[in-house]
Design brief:
With 183 residues, this protein is an all-beta fold. Strands 1, 3, 4, 5, 6, 8, 9 and 14 form an eight-stranded mixed beta sheet that branches.
Length: 183
């Protein structure tokens, strides 16, 4: 468990060395964020991240059954389901929370898979420096003739996701998530 103190209205960016080899050690990671505020009352947001995948098993009658399990090992083509659960354990509402999560190296974001209860979802193609809605996420390419062309990023180019949540009431919890395909 890692604890960080961040001021309210700032981003909790979880891109750090702990995640560089994420596919080799897909273990549930818990990060606790303490949002500073008044001495007597303060929001406290705790995050729990899990990575799961579906496995197909055959039951005693020979029928195939799909079961979701912790993604402790992966192979190319696996679809991983990441779930971020967040809870305000403080005694004051947490406002303007931003949860940033990198797309793990060696995976591609699965288009349309990002979700979040009551959150505004944006994506990054520059390692989490800038986040935008998919329709506004562009980059420039210079052709052999020197002409600069602007192109819209594809979901395979996304390398981080941000969930912006307006408010998390004291004692409440919610979740967000996304899926990736292992390369």
């Amino acid at each position: 468990m890692r604890t960080e103190t961040i001021p309210p209205n700032t981003s909790a960016n979880r891109r750090d060395p702990m995640y560089k080899n994420f596919l080799h050690s897909l273990v549930a990671v818990t990060t606790v964020l303490l949002l500073t505020g008044h001495v007597s009352a303060a929001p406290q947001i705790s995050l729990t991240v899990s990575a799961e995948k579906d496995v197909i098993e055959t039951d005693a009658k020979g029928a195939q059954v799909v079961r979701r399990v912790s993604a402790t090992d992966t192979t190319p083509g696996d679809i991983l389901f990441y779930t971020i659960r967040y809870r305000n354990t403080g005694d004051e509402a947490a406002r303007n929370i931003q949860i940033d999560n990198p797309i793990p190296d060696g995976t591609s974001f699965q288009e349309g898979s990002a979700w979040g209860d009551g959150s505004d979802i944006q994506f990054s193609i520059d390692g989490g420096k800038n986040f935008k809605k998919p329709s506004m996420l562009t980059y420039q390419v210079t052709g052999a003739d020197g002409q600069v062309e602007e192109r819209r990023a594809t979901p395979e180019q996304y390398n981080a996701i941000r969930w912006a949540v307006k408010e998390v009431a004291p004692g409440s919890e919610s979740s967000a998530g996304f899926s990736v395909i292992v390369q």
